[in-house]
Amino acid sequence: MTHPGISVMLVDDHAVVREGYRRLLQSETDLHVCGEAADAAQAYQRFCALGPDVVVMDVSLPGTSGVEATRRMLARSSAARVLMFSVHDELIFVRHALNAGAMGYVTKASAPEVLVEAVRAVSRGARYLSADVTHGLATSDALRQEASGRSLSAREFEVLRLLVQGYTLPIIGEKLGISEKTVANHQSVIRDKFGASNGVQLARMADRLGLRFSTGFT
Fold first, then answer.
1. Which residues contact 154 (CB under 8 A, 6 or more apart)?
2. CATH of domain 146-208
3. 214: which residues sit within 8 A by CB, 6+ positions away?
4. Domain residues of the chain, as ranges?
5. pTM score, two decimals?
6. 204/195 Cα distance (integer angstroms)
7. Contact present, 164 and 67 (Cβ < 8 Å)
8. Cross-strand pairs, 11
């Protein structure tokens, strides 16, 4: 069946959350949800199969992040339009999402109508940031605090995010399609950029950027 209006794919690892988004978006006559995904791999497969007008993507997914999933979608199709929808309002997440090619970033603290407005804007090819994100980007103190996070490359950010989740170097390599040695090299560079001589110091710096290391990281 062909639906008029804007087709949307939802990517979030919580089924109950996706159901809430689905009901919200489909209450609008010009929006319809064409598919859902619970992780990055599934999101990429369904993106390729469905070709949605807009992908509403959570940043924090099991394993590979929504940021990396966005990068892969854009690598396949430069016309992909991704709207990040996340609990994270820290600038390190916002900047890496936008650098990956996302056209918008809305926090889950936003009012429901903000998500609807953002989907419509992104579908038109316009960039959309929720008010709290815009305020953060405009705050010079926040920019200074986030400076070290901005210096991370896209790959380094993804390695750090997986370290945060407690994954080992071999598993990170497997998830990102790179060797364990390359992962170790990235970890070393990240520590150098943060001025961290060990895992504890790196965890403290990551915590300041809004990342949370799992118990037992060294």
1. 67, 71, 96, 99, 100
2. 1.10.10.10
3. 164, 165, 166
4. 6-140, 146-208
5. 0.68
6. 11
7. no
8. 37, 57
Q: Which of 163, 146, 173, 165 is nearest to 202 (CA)?
A: 163
In whole angstroms, what is the distance from residue 74 CA to residue 213 CA?
A: 29
* Residue type present at position 59: V
CATH number 3.20.20.70 is the correct assignment for the domain at 6-140: no
pLDDT digits (tens, 9 = 90+) for 1-59: 556 789 999 999 999 999 999 999 999 999 999 999 999 999 999 999 999 999 999 99
